[in-house]
Specification:
heterodimer, A: alpha+beta, six-stranded mixed barrel, 23 strands, elongated, B: alpha/beta, four-stranded antiparallel β-sheet, globular
Chain lengths: 797, 227
């Protein structure tokens, strides 16, 4: 029986090739999108899941609450915290400090291997870090390899880079910042891509300069601390000890904000955007949920298509149903027959979907700038997912048509008197409305996303971003002495317009905040974002002063320039009033000499912070070079060679400011692209579905159309008649979609401090798009129906 | 075999009952060949549908082989289809996507007859109807008469005790019609299969041994034919 039914199913699919290809193709595209979303979501959810004690690993984090309601979070902790935690908490089995830093790492030339010198992210970790996280050790072990000073552990990849082969690395020497020698004592296996810990070069913690710091007042995001909870300890049992801990150590009465420490579970490190992580990769749950919703939408529209087409086709199967019933088929058998037909179509579509997603995977990798490789069958879970999809889609799409078709009365079916309404025209219309509502929501969403992204791209940030190159500079005291010489040689290069030393660009993800005094000896109740810059900074980045002048040339703090926000927060109305007032900060004292017009110092997600800028050579981290647009390539080559002659022991690193800024919106860029792609997929699927439905309606009304023609209706009038009912459906769908889309879009935009005003245009536009698609589709198909030969339609009875 | 008592069928429309069948009482014995005749709209097809349990009477009692059909559950009715009733239709109603052999096999599948026996029975029937060469053709590759032969073969293969035929020759030319009617007669006489046909043609009715004439839903005449 099954074999015969399968054969019948295939013959049927072949007979209605048009419908079949519409069905299979629509379904395949929907399924392919779902597969891609699944692969993406699986990847995002797989971060940091591979550790044996994963559910007991937590990170200590820091928060500050200010009187004005502001809150700040950091993944870092004060340097003395790990030791204190180890001492005071009995609930933790292990406590480990790990610090991120950067430096120039060099391996001497070996026989048959040239010298390797690179600027790297490096880490200082306590041995217990590797007891908390069970890395696989290819050589050495945590307790021996990281206990002594001047020892270093490498990842397999890093070891291969520096020594050619990791087996030769053990016992060899790495030189850090041209100063200190470190002996390689261990090799760990490489981290997978889905890790928040891109550990490549790990120095023993005892080699860390500030390991004995007792300063509870400063926190850097690079100073992290991990703990392993004892088995059976509940999180709630930590509340009291943490409070006692805070009372004991974080009791600075003068602090402007209230400091708190909490534990953050390992599994949220990739998803919580309040805190950062070493890998700098996040995917907030909100976005994942958003994608899953889009995936469900896609699946739903594809299934709706299927239901519409299948019920429309049902009439042509009615005779078969009737005959089978009088031959003794039970309804249940018929339901299974039709369900297995759907399953067959779904299966074919799924195969096609696998091919489609395999073809699109490289595109998705590109979205991530090639950091990630995806593979279709890389994880066995995909097969479970495919199977679930097969079953779910078969039932979702197949059950209703199967119930309808198996329910035909044999007496009517045999007499060919099953009316077209048997398929439930009302339900089909509802489904189309739902489908078009989903389409409209996605169109509106896409339009808003595109608009907001271009708003961000084009918004004046308050400074110049074009043709500015940021070159980082070595930090050791010897190199600092060469700074001025370097600047002089750079200004000699043709094509260099302006040069400025600074701690960071105007907008940057490296920020420092500090408390300060203004015109009195009392600390102000908010903190200022500080930048150490030289006199040329304002000109280089095109910052405008609204009062006073830029700071004068100096190597230490002498004068200040503040921004509008800062004086507004101090309730100074006229910028000129602030000029000449004395500020103290970072131990330096001096008058305010200028007020700079507000510029965005963070990404547009966040508000402009109060800022203070001053000269301080010891804090300069890099040099910003404003270039002549005409010959950037050549100029940069000369800059590079100048750098290499001035600082031969260091590695030249250069970034263009405008590209650097783009990094702020990477998630939005990815989401924007995904939105665009999936919205067009949904539009396409709906289009196919509509075409199927209008085909059906046209067939169903063939006789009516013929009679109307005989009575004198023109083709145009007939097309208008068929269009009318569909346009109403699309109109209703849009009315349903608007409020839903409004809520979604409003929520998304709320994540941006600077955003477009939500106008009615995306909504109107979505309606126009869906209406014109409808008109085009319906007209195409109904023209054929209207032109059909009248006699053919009328002679059957 | 079949007992009908006071069968009525009407459709109520806005309180007005339009009767299709009124006070139909008759019985049909095993081995009879009954032709139901009458003008269009008289209720012949409705009567046949009721006999075939495709429609339910509004009133009345219907006993099939001693069992009350009106009280029957769907499952029991399906069992009757599988084992006792074969249908032959005016428009043949072969399943277009199945070959001749597959069409004939279908009822056997529902009867859950094992594969080997299915094969031999199909071969047997094809042989009897001289259609062995056509077994892999699809219905649309056959002439009307040949299609109806397949239709009858399909009805017969399950070895029913009664064949219900609704104008089996209505779409056929007279030569082919004769062939079909001869076949019915042979089946009736040689295999003692009860046959009930609805027909317009006086000539076809003569093949049977009893004619029921219906007019306006009422049995007007019930005569036996001595062919």
């Amino acid at each position: 029986m099954f074999k015969l039914n399968l054969k019948i199913a295939l013959r049927n699919l072949w007979k209605y090739k048009g419908y079949t290809s519409i069905n299979v193709f629509g379904l395949a595209i929907g399924l392919a999108s779902c597969i891609l979303i699944f692969i993406f979501v699986r990847y995002q959810l797989s971060f940091d899941k591979d550790y044996a004690n994963g559910d007991r690993i937590y990170r200590m984090v820091t928060s500050w609450k200010y009187a004005d309601g502001n809150e700040f979070y950091s993944q870092g902790v004060p340097l003395p915290l790990p030791a204190a935690v180890r001492n005071d908490f009995s609930q933790f089995e292990k406590v480990a400090a790990i610090q991120q830093s950067s430096g120039i790492v060099k391996a001497k030339a070996l026989p048959g291997k040239a010298e390797v010198k690179k600027s790297e992210s490096i880490y200082y970790a306590e041995p217990s870090f590797f007891e908390i996280f069970d890395y696989k050790w290819l050589a050495g072990n945590p307790n021996q390899s990281l206990t002594a000073p001047n020892t270093v552990v490498l990842s397999e990849k890093a070891a291969n880079t520096y020594f050619g082969d990791w087996r030769k690395a053990i016992g060899n020497t790495l030189i850090l910042d041209n100063k200190t020698d470190f002996k390689v004592t261990g090799i760990i296996k490489d981290n997978p891509q889905n890790s928040s810990f891109p550990l490549e070069i790990i120095f023993s913690y005892v080699s860390f300069n500030s390991k004995n710091s007792k300063d509870w007042g400063s926190v850097s995001s690079s100073w992290e601390c991990y703990v392993l909870l004892k088995k059976g300890v509940l999180l709630s049992e930590l509340d009291k000890p943490i409070q006692q801990f805070l009372n004991k150590y974080e009791n600075d009465k003068d602090a402007s904000g209230k400091v708190g420490h909490t534990v953050q579970p390992l599994k949220t490190i990739h998803h919580n955007d309040n805190y950062g992580n070493f890998a700098n990769k996040y995917m907030p749950y909100k976005q994942i949920i958003g994608l899953v919703i889009i995936g469900l939408f896609l699946l739903l529209t594809a299934c709706i298509n299927f239901i519409n087409l299948a019920t429309a086709q049902a009439i042509s199967r009615s005779k078969e149903v009737g005959v089978r019933k009088v031959m003794g088929s039970r309804r249940k058998q018929l339901i299974w027959q039709f369900l297995s037909e759907t399953a067959l179509i779904t299966f074919i579509a799924l195969l096609l979907a696998c091919v489609l997603s395999e073809l699109t995977l490289p595109k998705m990798e590109n979205l991530f700038g090639g950091d990630v490789t995806f593979s279709l069958f890389g994880h066995p879970i995909i097969f479970v997912f495919l199977l679930v999809m097969l079953v779910v889609v078969s039932f979702l799409a197949g059950l209703y048509p199967a119930l309808i078709m198996s329910g035909f009365s044999p007496a009517l079916a045999i007499k060919n008197k099953v009316t077209a309404n048997a398929g439930g025209v009302g339900l089909r219309k509802t489904l189309v409305v739902v489908q078009f509502a989903i389409t409209a929501i996605l169109i509106i969403g896409t339009l808003v996303v595109i608009k907001q992204m271009s708003f961000i791209r084009n918004k004046s940030l308050g400074f110049d971003t074009q043709a500015i190159s940021l070159v980082s500079l070595p930090q050791d005291s010897l190199s600092k002495l060469k700074y001025n010489g370097f600047k002089e040689r750079l200004s000699g290069i043709k094509g260099v317009k302006n040069i400025s030393f600074c701690s960071a660009a105007p907008s940057s993800d490296s920020n420092n905040e500090t408390s300060f005094t203004y015109n009195s000896s009392k600390r102000v109740d908010f903190q200022a974002n500080v930048k150490a810059v030289d006199e040329a900074y304002f000109k280089t980045f095109g910052l405008q002063l609204i009062a006073g002048r830029p700071i004068a040339k100096s190597d230490t703090i002498k004068e200040f320039v503040v921004n509008e926000t800062l004086i507004k927060k101090l309730n100074v109305k006229n910028p000129n009033e602030a000029i000449g007032k004395i500020m103290t900060l970072w131990g330096g004292k001096g008058p305010i000499v200028g007020v700079v017009k507000d510029f965005n110092n963070y990404s547009l997600h966040e508000k402009i912070a109060p800022m203070a800028m001053f000269s301080r050579k010891s804090n300069y981290r890099g040099i910003a070079i404003k270039l002549d647009v005409a010959d950037i390539g050549n100029t940069m080559k000369q800059v590079e060679s100048t750098f290499n002659t001035m600082f031969p022991d260091y590695v030249y690193e250069n970034e263009f400011f405008d590209e650097n800024l783009k990094g702020f919106y990477e998630t939005e860029q990815i989401m924007g692209t995904l939105f665009k792609v999936f919205a067009s997929v949904v539009i396409f699927i709906s289009f196919i579905g509509l075409f199927g439905l209008i085909s059906f309606v046209a067939t169903q009304r063939t006789k009516e159309i013929a009679i109307r023609k005989v009575l004198g209706a023109s083709n145009l009038e007939l097309i208008k008649m068929l269009n009318n009912s569909f346009l109403w459906m699309v109109l209703i769908a849009n009315m349903v979609a608007w409020p839903v889309a409004y809520i979604f879009v409003k929520n998304w935009l709320a994540g941006f401090e600077y955003r477009i005003d939500l106008s009615i245009w995306p909504f109107i536009f979505a309606m126009l798009i869906s209406m014109s698609i409808t008109i085009i589709t319906v007209t195409l198909r109904s023209y054929r129906a209207a032109k059909a030969n009248t006699i053919d339609a009328l002679k059957y009875e | 075999m079949i007992e009908l008592k006071n069968i009525e069928k009407y459709y109520a429309n806005k309180g007005v009952k339009s009767y299709i069948l009124r006070h139909v009482t008759t019985s049909i014995k095993q081995g009879e060949f009954v032709s139901i005749m009458g003008p269009s709209g008289a209720g012949k097809s409705t009567l046949l549908n009721i006999l075939g349990m495709l429609e339910e009477p509004t009133y009345g009692e219907y006993h099939f082989m001693g069992e009350d059909v009106t009280a029957m559950k769907e499952r029991q009715r399906i069992e009757l289809y599988r084992n006792h009733i074969g249908f032959v239709f005016q428009a043949y109603h072969l399943i277009d996507e199945m070959t001749v052999a597959e069409n004939i096999e279908a009822p056997l599948l529902y009867k859950k007859i094992p594969g080997a026996e299915r094969k031999s029975r199909i071969a047997d029937v094809l042989d009897r109807f001289n259609m062995v060469a056509k077994k892999d053709l699809f219905p649309n590759q056959l002439s009307g008469g040949q299609q109806q032969l397949v239709g009858i073969a399909r009805a017969l293969v399950a070895q029913p005790s009664i064949i219900l035929a609704d104008e089996p020759t209505g779409n056929l030319q007279s030569a082919q019609a004769e062939q079909i009617m001869d076949l019915f007669k042979k089946l009736n006489q040689e295999e003692n299969i009860t046959i009930l046909q609805v027909t317009h043609s006086e000539k076809n009715a003569q093949y049977g041994n009893r004619i029921l004439t219906i007019e306006d839903g009422v049995i007007k005449e019930d005569v036996s034919v001595n062919g």
